[in-house]
Amino acid sequence: MANKHALSIVKMKKMKQEGVPLSMVTAYDYSSAQLVEEAGIDMILVGDSLGNVVQGEHTTLPVTIEDMVYHTRAVVRGAGNTFIVTDMPFMTYHGSIDETLRNVRRIMQEGHAHAIKMEGGREICETVKKIVQAGVPVIGHIGLTPQSVNQIGGYLIQGKDEQDAQRLLEDAKALEQAGAFGIVLELVTEEVARFISEQISIPTIGIGAGRYCDGQVLVFHDLFQYASPYRSKRFVKTYGDVGTMIREGVSQYVKEVKDRSFPAENHVFTAEDHVVESYMVNQRRRCTLHESSQNDY
């Protein structure tokens, strides 16, 4: 969009105060980034979910800093007027603060992201604080945290009892206090997500967290069933079946190549008659000279 400008974190907080929801979607390459920007998305997340939907991994754990830098740069080239957040991948912010800041620097300087996202609650708040003090905007991520899937025992709904709800609230408040400008709530019960959203001043972005967050985020491939086979998810609404369209399109292409109906006459380029005639005359002359020279031997 020619007249579109990237949001700032100040504008996002104002949108929360005014009750204007934020829209966010993942993107992993130049083309998808272009399309979602043209559609008017507020924010793009270059998620480590690329491990699943782009690389074919079973979890996000194998994703590296190099992967995130590469994909972020592609997305930034496609969506230069949209606020872009990049995931810090597994175990890139749990070592020393010097090592963490080196990884953050790569995302920001080499990838050209506007902000980073980090999974975790109170246990990462000191790190969040130091990153924010270094001038880098941070969005938190609590609830289901895919990088901890082995520790929490699977992809389980969070906030189902009072103790877990209290844990999530305390994590959210701690992240706000540490300087995070927003928090992703993943697979959190709607009631708990709503209460957390009311109790903090920074925006909450829900994914499977109900109707009352300050914004919503979904994975690009989920929006369009861009997978084979596609596994439906309760918290996802499908806005187009790209997977079926691609399969049917490629199948038709294969058929037409095999039966020679593609390319058709309207797909080819032809030379002017005099060019063809001149070319053929010259070719016949060369052939005649070649045969003559062969006979000399």
UniProtKB/TrEMBL annotation:
Primary location recorded for the protein, binned into one broad class: cytoplasm
Pathway listed: Cofactor biosynthesis; (R)-pantothenate biosynthesis; (R)-pantoate from 3-methyl-2-oxobutanoate: step 1/2
InterPro entries according to UniProt: Pantoate_hydroxy_MeTrfase, Pyrv/PenolPyrv_kinase-like_dom, Pyrv_kinase-like_dom_sf
Catalytic activity: (6R)-5,10-methylene-5,6,7,8-tetrahydrofolate + 3-methyl-2-oxobutanoate + H2O = 2-dehydropantoate + (6S)-5,6,7,8-tetrahydrofolate
Gene Ontology annotations of biological process type: methylation; pantothenate biosynthetic process
GO cellular component, one term: cytoplasm
Keyword set includes NAD: no
Sorted UniProt keywords: Cytoplasm, Magnesium, Metal-binding, Methyltransferase, Pantothenate biosynthesis, Transferase
Span of the signal peptide: none
Keyword Nucleotidyltransferase: no
Location relative to the cell: Cytoplasm
Pfam families reported in the protein's UniProt record: Pantoate_transf
Cofactor(s) the protein requires to work: Mg(2+)
EC number: 2.1.2.11
GO molecular function annotations of the record: 3-methyl-2-oxobutanoate hydroxymethyltransferase activity; magnesium ion binding; methyltransferase activity
Residue positions binding Mg(2+): D48, D87, E119
Binding site for 3-methyl-2-oxobutanoate: D48, S49, D87, K117
Active site: E186 (proton acceptor)
Cofactor detail note: Binds 1 Mg(2+) ion per subunit.
Subunit note: Homodecamer; pentamer of dimers.
Function text: Catalyzes the reversible reaction in which hydroxymethyl group from 5,10-methylenetetrahydrofolate is transferred onto alpha-ketoisovalerate to form ketopantoate.
Protein family according to the UniProt entry: Belongs to the PanB family.
Protein name: 3-methyl-2-oxobutanoate hydroxymethyltransferase
Native organism: Paenibacillus pini JCM 16418
